């Protein structure tokens, strides 16, 4: 009962987060979103990747825009409704993709030299850990989704077909 609700909340909340923060760097001059929210986030959490994303990070943003965003309402529906076994394969694909992306992002946060960044990045280990804490739920929840889809009998049962 708790896990599907957590997944539903994750996917429902991901829509405004993606639109208001994550995808803003793709259309900086469009003026579609309140840029001040992105600037507040980038300064508060010292995340220069959001103000001037490296090309590899932009690739992840495009994946979020064109692959993940259409999936969010579908997944939210499946987990709110409950008992939707058809969500298993798409959820495995989604969670594997996101977890893999996050490994690269987290490694960048931990090991990159941000002193040359045009925008303020984390300078101390504590600042890196704070920025890491913003991203880490987007690794942990997809991993929980993956393990739930792989091992939970609720989603992992193979239907037995009748022989004629």
Automatic annotation (TrEMBL):
Topological type in the membrane: Multi-pass membrane protein
Keywords: Endoplasmic reticulum, Membrane, Nucleus, Signal, Transmembrane, Transmembrane helix
Domain spans labelled EXPERA: 3-146
Pfam families linked: EBP
Cellular component, GO, one term: nuclear membrane
Membrane spanning residue stretches: 59-80, 92-110, 130-152
PROSITE patterns: EXPERA (PS51751)
Signal sequence range: 1-20
Subcellular location(s) per record: Rough endoplasmic reticulum membrane; Nucleus membrane
Record function comment: Sigma-2 receptor which contributes to ameliorate dysfunctional cellular processes and slow degenerative progression by regulating cell functions including cholesterol biosynthesis/trafficking, membrane trafficking, autophagy, lipid membrane-bound protein trafficking, and receptor stabilization at the cell surface. Forms a ternary complex with PGRMC1 receptor and low density lipoprotein receptor/LDLR at the plasma membrane, which increases LDLR-mediated LDL cholesterol internalization.
Similarity comment: family membership: Belongs to the TMEM97/sigma-2 receptor family.
PANTHER family to which the protein is assigned, alphabetical: SIGMA INTRACELLULAR RECEPTOR 2 (PTHR31204)
Protein name: Transmembrane protein 97
